[in-house]
Write a structure and sequence with these properties.
mainly alpha; 4 helices
Length: 86
């Protein structure tokens, strides 16, 4: 597989981690723990981005968790199951 395809997969995972995952965390938290003390979803996103800028570990783990999973998976696919030309 080409490096470009690996980069595309990692970029998709990063986009998911920034755009969708915080909303999933917010809605899961409100269902399990009750209302978010900081306000609504928009406030949660603002806090998330502020924590990223402030180098908070929890925000960076939320961001890079999916990216790391996809990167490791793509690396395993490239190494363990390499495609050979027929």
């Amino acid at each position: 597989m080409s490096v470009r395809r690996h980069v595309v997969w990692v970029a998709v995972a990063a986009t998911f981690a920034v755009a969708i995952l915080p909303a999933l965390v917010f809605y899961t938290g409100t269902r399990l723990l009750g209302p978010y003390a900081g306000g609504g979803l928009r406030d949660f996103y603002g806090d998330f981005l502020r924590d990223l800028a402030g180098l908070e570990l929890s925000a960076w783990v939320l961001l890079f968790g999916p990216v790391a999973l996809v990167a490791v998976w793509r690396l395993l696919v490239a190494v363990v199951w390499p495609r050979t030309g027929a």
